[in-house]
Amino acid sequence: MSDRPYLRSLTPASIAPPFARYAHGVAVDKAAGLVVTSGQLALAPGGAVPDGAEAQAELCFANIDAILTEAGTGRENILRINAFVTGREHMAGYMAARDAWLARVEHLPASTLMIVSGFTRPEFVVEIEAMAAIL
After folding, report:
1. Which CDD domains match (predicted)?
2. Residue 54: which of 104, 12, 105, 91 has the closest Cα?
3. Which of 12, 93, 99, 130 is most buried, with most CB under 10 Å away?
């Protein structure tokens, strides 16, 4: 039995299954509120930007964890992830970081990954935004 029975991953058997570790949709049966993050870039507090998509995604997810904690929730209540990478070569690194971040999350969030032409600075190759329930 889920310790979060009010969060349901939606993956209807009548449509093709998701490509990776995400759900086609998420239902929230009860919630006190929502938290929506801005897109997080891999910028450390001191201004450093790690090299590579996986390291950048790990930092983006760490930033999202901090925002969720500030809101009084956590990744266990994640509803949706929107991610952006600057090329197909960055998809595997992003997905490895995402899957590690979600490894202990029982329900899977909805997720979208898009390839974009770039961000505000050329060293950024990943940006991630998220939505979570406050329960």
Report:
1. YjgF_YER057c_UK114_family (cd00448)
2. 91
3. 130
Closest CA to 53 of 88, 83, 90: 90
Q: Among 11, 18, 3, 5, which residue's Cα sits nearest to residue 95?
A: 18
Q: For the chain, which domains are there?
A: 7-134 (3.30.1330.40)
For 1-135, where are the alpha helices, taking DSSP H only? 53-71, 91-101
Q: Please, is 96 exposed, middle or buried when counting C-beta atoms within 10 Å of its C-beta (0-12, 13-18, 19+)?
A: middle
What the block records as the tokens of 31 is 């919630």
**Between residues 128 and 24, the one the model is more confident about:** 128
Per-residue pLDDT band for 1 (boundaries 50, 70, 90) equals: very low
Tokens of 69: 């904690």
Phi, psi of 95 (to 5 degrees): -65, -35
Q: Which letter does DSSP use for residue 58 in this model?
A: H
Please give the radius of gyration of the chain, using alpha carbons only, rounded to the nearest integer.
15
